[in-house]
Amino acid sequence: MIEWKMREMDLSDLKRAPSTIWELETPVPLVDVDVACRNLERWQRRCEQLGIANRPHIKTHKMVLWANEQLRLGALGITVQKLGEAEVMARAGITDIFVTYNIVGAGKVKRLARLARSNEIKVTADNRECCRQTAHAAARAGRAIGVFVECDTGGKRNGVQSPEEALELARFIDGQRFLELEGLMTFPANGSRIASAEFLSKSQDLLLAAGLPCNAVSSGGSTDMWSAEGLERVTEYRAGTYIFNDRSLVDSNSCSLDDCAVTVLATVVSKPSSGDRITLDAGSKALTSDLRNFNDYGIELASGNPVYSLSEEHGLLDVRGWEGAPAVGDMVRILPNHVCPVINLFDEVALVRGEEVVGMATVDARGKVQ
Amino acid sequence: MIEWKMREMDLSDLKRAPSTIWELETPVPLVDVDVACRNLERWQRRCEQLGIANRPHIKTHKMVLWANEQLRLGALGITVQKLGEAEVMARAGITDIFVTYNIVGAGKVKRLARLARSNEIKVTADNRECCRQTAHAAARAGRAIGVFVECDTGGKRNGVQSPEEALELARFIDGQRFLELEGLMTFPANGSRIASAEFLSKSQDLLLAAGLPCNAVSSGGSTDMWSAEGLERVTEYRAGTYIFNDRSLVDSNSCSLDDCAVTVLATVVSKPSSGDRITLDAGSKALTSDLRNFNDYGIELASGNPVYSLSEEHGLLDVRGWEGAPAVGDMVRILPNHVCPVINLFDEVALVRGEEVVGMATVDARGKVQ
């Protein structure tokens, strides 16, 4: 059995806040720092055991504070999805950044060039046009930019469609003066690790046989992160949601309820005499409309009862058959279906230890979708 | 036939921007000012014809610029859902604000008191506890706060459940020293105007027979706004989405496609060789996961093709059978299902006239959910 030695985070920069969660303004996300730290440590150790580099995705927390904590615990660098996120992190002094996105567009090329000048930026590509634009950015920066060939290994999102296409694009990248071919990248569909591994192995073999470099193989996703299946070729892992976890990860047995670091604190504002529901001050502008695989928008932590309907600023909690259901003015904690877009709705979150508030922290990269 | 005389908005405060939409960073919402102005003017005229006061809901645009335009065109005041929105609008000099929300919680009471001191604030209530807290706020402000009894006329969200309950709560409000009973308020379910009117008429009759004041009857909603049905007792109307409209309002025949002022501009970043899809740089953090009654997340304006899948930063556009579908680097415009939560994701939007960019405007009350 491993004993988790909790390190002390530097929380000295936090904004002042009430002393307990019950004094907070609602709705607000509560981030339990001890749970989040435990999640970070456990995964870092796991990566070290597997001999895989940890490159956490900051799209979940979008906070400099947590990115720094991930690096302090041993992460190789960070992953971001958009240049706007990279800019925020780079301004905060984080220099090793993998932008897992195709960079396309005149404005994006300029911004990538600016970033690449003084940071170690890597990007993905799954088509020649985006390689050409990335090469322009690198030329402008006067410095090579590392590129991973993105492979569609079953996720049916971005990515080259076959190992042969991976080889073809790798050749193209290798032929660009300012691009450095790093290797392969995928965002595998949940439960598709074996198919993903086959695609990556075959692609890597093709690249190596053609005399192309392929040092790095990057995979990701929090749902399957604890499975060792199909990781043989993987050198780097990008997990995002694992820092906080959420209802969907509990549902997929990727974590337990105790591993969920984030709940949304809400106040009961109405309790109609119909007796079927209470209304919370958290609606789709606090919980998002993200259903994942559920039929409702989150559950109340104490009862497990669902938030069965949302409008923008109201959440309807089912209280049928619940003796002593909360009254108007009471506060409840909602476990969100999908934590990432929830954090993205808030300018700041409360860092807590149980019911104690440690301080308010800024969501630095909130809304940085460009 | 009515001729719309377009007044000139004051756009002098806008931030600098590129001259055409094709030079903008994506994803970004485009707000066509001429379409939005036409929507505002048309509804203002309609309210004047009906003899109903127009009290637009700013939750859709969340921008001081548009709230001022609504007032300039003849709106009586504005409606907001949360105190945070009211604070932003009050700071900008807008003083007549209806907060259609039950105010509950120690922090909220203090903030309501602060607002009420120098503004004409009205709120709703559907329970005694929230009336008591509102009365505390009013006492603290040293000034009466107007309260509307919220009625659940079929929306099954907040509200007293019967005209008899409306009377009982109205009596309670009237008995509070610092509260002023304004009348009745409802957010009717779509298509329930007749049932809603019956509830409101019966309630108003009960209040008046009991010697209670009931000068104002406030209804709202953009879906049914053009129907005159069941408006006999209504003195004020709160519409929000009508300024921009969206796919769901086109679907309910509340407006035409030409009346939709907002699209989300996105760039094609990937076009897999599978030929079934292209990937846009707009995902759920730009379009939201709000399905409304659809099976997908918005449509591409030129083709009508659906965004059939979203992850946080990717949107998958179905291009099966589309000859000459956009290539990597091309831009497309997506009509969102529900425009209100989309605007709430962005710090600024582009104001446009067709393809010309007028300037960038701040979403002042973005994220003000508390």
Give me the secondary-structure topology.
Two copies of one chain form a homodimer.
Chain A: E1 28-32, H1 33-50, E2 53-54, H2 64-72, E3 78-80, H3 83-91, E4 96-102, H4 106-118, E5 120-125, H5 128-141, E6 145-151, H6 163-174, E7 179-186, H7 193-209, E8 216-220, E9 236-238, H8 247-251, E10 262-270, E11 277-280, H9 284-287, E12 299-300, E13 307-310, E14 315-318, E15 331-335, H10 339-343, E16 348-353, E17 356-362
Helix pairs in contact in A: 3-4, 4-5, 6-7
Q: Quaternary status of these chains?
A: homodimer
| Beta strand % of chain A | 15-25%
What is the H-and-E element order of chain A? Answer: EHEHEHEHEHEHEHEEHEEHEEEEHEE
- Helix and strand content put the structural class of chain A at alpha/beta
The general outline of chain A is elongated
Specify the biggest β-sheet of chain A: 9 strands, mixed
Helical proportion of chain A, percent range: 25-40%
> Would you report the number of β strands of chain A?
17
How many separate helices of chain A? 10
Low-confidence stretches of chain A: 1-5
The biggest chain-chain interface is: A-B, 68 and 68 residues
Radius of gyration of chain A: 22 Å
Could you give the distance between the termini of chain A?
A: 44 Å
Mean pLDDT of chain A: 96
What's this entry about, in short?
The structure is a homodimer of 370-residue chains. In chain A, 29% of the residues lie in helices and 24% in strands.
Characteristic key phrases:
homodimer; 8-stranded parallel beta sheet; 17 strands
Your description of this structure?
2 copies of one chain form a homodimer. By secondary structure, chain A is α/β, with parallel strands linked by helices. Chain A is built from 10 helices and 17 strands. The first copy, chain A, has helices at 33-50, 64-72, 83-91, 106-118, 128-141, 163-174, 193-209, 247-251, 284-287, 339-343; strands at residues 28-32, 53-54, 78-80, 96-102, 120-125, 145-151, 179-186, 216-220, 236-238, 262-270, 277-280, 299-300, 307-310, 315-318, 331-335, 348-353, 356-362. In chain A, strands 1, 10, 11, 12, 13, 14, 15, 16 and 17 form a 9-stranded mixed beta sheet that branches. In chain A, strands 2-9-8-7-6-5-4-3 form an 8-stranded parallel beta sheet. In chain A, helix 7 (193-209) links the parallel strand 7 (179-186) and strand 8 (216-220). In chain A, helix 3 runs parallel beside helix 4 (106-118), helix 4 packs across helix 5 and helix 6 (163-174) packs across helix 7 (193-209). The longest helix of chain A is centred in the N-terminal third of the chain and has 18 residues, at 33-50. The first copy, chain A, starts with 27 loop residues before the first strand and ends in an 8-residue tail after the last strand.
